[in-house]
Structure formats: structure tokens, C-alpha cells
Design brief:
about 230 residues, alpha+beta, single chain, Glutaredoxin, about 50% helix
């Protein structure tokens, strides 16, 4: 029997479905605790929002139409809220800058291992995971343009993260290199949407708005399955 299940999680910080589904990872952590480990990677669906939304949604109202769609999605979930200016007046140009900032924080974990330790005040999230969550909230809930580096650094400062080392990793290119590695791995893993969860050495793929019960059932199925023989079901 397996003692732990590794979850590979790809998402874009500007993706409404990733924002909505974050609570499912929280619940999985609360329910199964150390029986699961989550490796988070970034996949840029919103790398060029002028094209994705401005052009891609042109016949459906452009940014205004997409903002309306996003509000309709969020209205179906009581645990999230969306700022009225998100995508209407506040239009991030890309998710790449904020993704690079998150990879900069990830790169600091070698010198500051506390970034990877669960914190009770964060509901069991690590400081690195909390940083990602607060960046999502900064846009969706608070209507801040997280494609601007200074906004992302403001969020980092609010969490007490070291701004100088984060800025240096952006300036010296190491954060961008780490982000490029995530994007390359996403391509090799066949990821094409956000969020995307891969289980069982990438044999199981859960994409998009997957319910918590479906996620939990897949994880429990792996935990309960003997590791030395295949299951027929």
C-alpha cells in the first residue's frame, strides 16, 4: 500500500478556475495531511492577454465580456469574490511577470527552507504557497494589476518576504530561467489548460474544474492500491 501520493499541479495565477479550485487542495491537505505531497508548477494560459482576451473574446465583448463571464463563474462559489475592476479597468498584460516572481521566491527556498514548511496561520500552506494565494487574491479579490512587478513585490512585502533577493533573481534572469523550465516541462507533460493535476507518474490527468470528490477519489484510489500490481478497476 502506498504511504503517500505525489500530486503535480500546474496553474496560471490569472486563471479563474485555478483561483476557484485552490480550496480543493486545501481540503485535501486538511483531510489527508502528510499522505499527499503537492509539487506546484506554473503554466501560462494568460501569457498574452491582449490576444487571448482582447482578440479571442472580440466577438463576445472583449475584456468586458470576459469579465462578465468571470463574474458568472465566481458567483457559483461562495468562497471566492471578484473585484468589479478585474479585467474591466484593471487588465494585466501577462501572467509571466508574476509567475517569474513566484519562481524567484521558489529559488530562495534553498537558502530559506522555512518557505517550504507548513504554517498553521496559513491554514497549513507553506509561505511559498501562501505567496501564490495572496497574489491570486491581489488580482481577483482586490483588483490589483499583478502583471506589474512592483505590485507583486508589494504583496511579497506584506508577507514579510525578502524583497532584495527577490528583485535580484528577477534582474539576474534566474527566476525567468526557472519559469522557462516549468513551461518546457508543461509541454512535455502534455499540459494544455489551467489548472491541471497529474497523478500516478502522469498516468492520470485531471484538467479544469474538477470537483473535490473526484480529486479525492483519485488520490484515495492510489493510496489504497497495492503498488506491486495493477488494479483492474
Amino acid at each position: 500500500m502506498r504511504s503517500t501520493v505525489s500530486i503535480l499541479h500546474y496553474s496560471d495565477l490569472l486563471c479563474i478556475w485555478a483561483y476557484v479550485s485552490e480550496i480543493r487542495l486545501d481540503e485535501l491537505r486538511r483531510t489527508l495531511g502528510p499522505r499527499t505531497t503537492v509539487e506546484r508548477r506554473l503554466f501560462s494560459v494568460f501569457g498574452d492577454t491582449a490576444t487571448k482576451i482582447g482578440v479571442g473574446w472580440a466577438e463576445r465583448g472583449g475584456f468586458e465580456g470576459y469579465a462578465s463571464h468571470m463574474r458568472e463563474v465566481a458567483a457559483g462559489f461562495s468562497h471566492v469574490s471578484v473585484h468589479p475592476h478585474a479585467w474591466t479597468q484593471v487588465r494585466p498584460t501577462t501572467s509571466l511577470t508574476v509567475h517569474a516572481l513566484l519562481k524567484a521566491a521558489d529559488g530562495l527556498s534553498a537558502e530559506e527552507p522555512g518557505l517550504l514548511q507548513p504554517v498553521e496561520a496559513y491554514g497549513g500552506r507553506t509561505p511559498l504557497e501562501e505567496f501564490g494565494w495572496q497574489l491570486r487574491l491581489a488580482f481577483f479579490r482586490d483588483g490589483r494589476d499583478i502583471s506589474r512587478v512592483e505590485v507583486g513585490l508589494e504583496v511579497a512585502a506584506e508577507l514579510g518576504l525578502p524583497i532584495g533577493p527577490l528583485r535580484e533573481r528577477l534582474n539576474d534572469g534566474s527566476a525567468w530561467a526557472a519559469l522557462s523550465a516549468d513551461l518546457s516541462r508543461a509541454l512535455s507533460d502534455g499540459v494544455h489548460a489551467s489548472p491541471c493535476i497529474l497523478l500516478d507518474d502522469r498516468r492520470q490527468v485531471l484538467t479544469g474544474n474538477v470537483s473535490y470528490r473526484v480529486l479525492e477519489a483519485n488520490v484515495l484510489g492510489l493510496l489504497d492500491r497495492p503498488g506491486d500490481r495493477a488494479s483492474w478497476c
